[in-house]
Amino acid sequence: MPLPTPPSPISVLEKSKQLAAWTAVDQHVRPEHRVRIAMLCSTVPYVVERIVQLGAEANQERVFIPTGFQSKELIVSSGLSLGDVDQFPTIDVTLDGADEVDTQLNCIKGGGACHLREKVLAEAADTFILVADYRKNVQYLGTNFTPGIPIEVVPFAYAKVLQNLHHILGSPKASLRMAVKKAGPVVSDNGNFIIDAPFDQETMKTPYTIMAQIKMLTGVVEVGVFCNMAKAAYFGNEDGSVTIRWNDGRVDQVAAPRPQ
Hints:
The chain is 28% helix and 22% strand. It is built from eight helices and 14 strands. Belongs to the ribose 5-phosphate isomerase family.
């Protein structure tokens, strides 16, 4: 009988993402919390991993709310209780990833076309925490995440919204997001289309302004820019350490664990 294959060691970057997620859980999942949320991103499996390590007794009265199918499967497979925002419109703490986060903790989300539900659940939380890797830690949004601002639109209005973006709001390269493995546009879980709208750096220096302008376009359902929402952001670094940015301007560092 062949011996089982040992698990592959994870990279330093993955270790740092794991440390960022574990630190966020340790600092923000309180014993008194009964409703919290797990979402889909590359760091959320580490968030769930740490929550499971708290033990069945600590989690037995807690409810976890997903944003999509994959995060739902992760919660269920981990033996955690599944809930929905319809049941729990107020959430203790939301732990989520981001496509990019600036120095003011504004962030872009929507690379996975889930930003409508993600924003609803972020707004429902008493505390909103971001967990990501160092590539998402930027001075201005749009630095590394180049596809642009994700915009969910109702299908019959997409052409009109594109025209507004091209000729009024200053995003001439805004385009409908197309599916990779099938013909046609990406369709969100809500049955809507997604537009990706890149803007110049000067515009992205004031993300709230452009978010509000896009949101005012008739046909737009939600904009993948989150402003003035996060309390802290945890970034896993290349060297295995973690940088923590707080909404009051503080920056903390957590050293990488020493090799054993």
